[in-house]
Each structure stands twice: as C-alpha cells, then as structure tokens.
Amino acid sequence: MIVSCGFPILYFQTRVGKNNKDFKLYKFRTMHLNADKKGLLTVGGRDPRVTSIGYYLRKYKLDELPQLFNVLFGTMSLVGPRPEVRKYVDLYSKEQQLVLSVKPGITDYASLEYINENELLANAINPEQTYIDEIMPAKLKLNAKYIEQQGFFVDLKIILNTINKIFK
Q1: Closest CA to 107 of 86, 72, 77
Q2: Is residue 2 domain-resident?
C-alpha cells in the first residue's frame, strides 16, 4: 500500500454541507498527489490518476470509511444527500438548494442509483457536461425524495441496501 499509494494516506476535500457551509470531508487518498487539479470528476474504472490500491479502495467504497470521523464531528450523518464540491453547488437552482437544509451523509438514494457513476461518465463525450446536465439533476431529485421521506426505517433501508450493493 505504501509503495503504490504513498503518504499522506488521508485526503481532505472541501465540500458543502448543511446550511451551505463548507467543511472538510475525510477520505483515504486513492489518487496520486495533486490529481484533483486535473479535474474533480473521476471518469471510468481505470482513471489513470487513481493508484493501484486506490482502485480497490474505491471499488469496495473503503475510501469512504474516514467519513465516519465527519459523522463523529457532526458535519455529516450516516445517511443523507452526498455532499458536493462548491463548484457544482453554485449551479444549483433555488429548488435544488433544498438539499443544503439537511446534514449530508455517507450514503443515500443517489449513491445507490449511481454506484456506477464513473462508468457512465466514461461513456460520455463531455463527462463534466453530462454530470452537470444529467447526473447531478437526477441525484438532486433523489435527494429531495430522501428529504421528504427521511426517518429511521428509511435510513436503515438505505444502509442495508448500500451494504448489499457494495458486496455484490
């Protein structure tokens, strides 16, 4: 792991949370240093910016484990709309900004529906435009559905479905 990934092993990215406030999201670093300067979206299963161990950490969603610290620190919850980077939040319509009224989460309906988002973007002529025009609005609709339905049993269902999808 040290040979292919190196240090630091943690990656901190500024994301937008509840009430439109920025916070630091924790992840295991799965890309080479400064790879985020070449773009914020990961495209395809074998994005050359992703390290060899990073591929497996991402595949099994293990890179997300440090976000449990975000949950402990109160900036995130286990279930809720995935936090986005400021660049894309700034494109939200007034209605889409509803997503910023709740704590972001580690998993949600959109995470389940778009578990293969990287592959979808790999097939796009312009991945970023596809994300902005198609994927992001669809995810935000799923986020609105979650906000409308949220509760213990909905959260439990999402957590169990997430675990199921990761191990399939």
Answers
A1: 77
A2: no
Q: How far, in Å, CA of 17 to CA of 37, rounded? A: 22
At 109 the three-state DSSP class reads helix
The closest alpha carbon to 15, from 103, 130, 96, belongs to 103
Beta strands in the chain (DSSP E): 10-16, 22-28, 77-79, 105-107
> Are the C-beta atoms of residues 88 and 136 closer than 8 Å to each other?
yes
- Which residue range is the domain that position 158 belongs to? 10-167
Matching residue, tokens 């610290």: 69
Q: Is residue 4 part of a domain?
A: no
- What size, in residues, is the chain? 168
pLDDT at residue 43, rounded to an integer? 53
pLDDT at 46: 61
Number of domains in the chain: 1
> What value does the mean pLDDT take over residues 137-153?
98
Asked if the bond preceding 8 is cis, omega within 30° of 0, the reply is yes
The 8-class DSSP code of residue 151 comes to S
**Start-to-end C-alpha separation, the chain:** 24
Q: Report yes or no on 125 lying in a domain.
A: yes
Helix/strand/coil percentages in the chain, nearest 5: 50, 15, 35
- The reply to whether 23 falls in a domain is yes
Output the pTM of the full model: 0.83
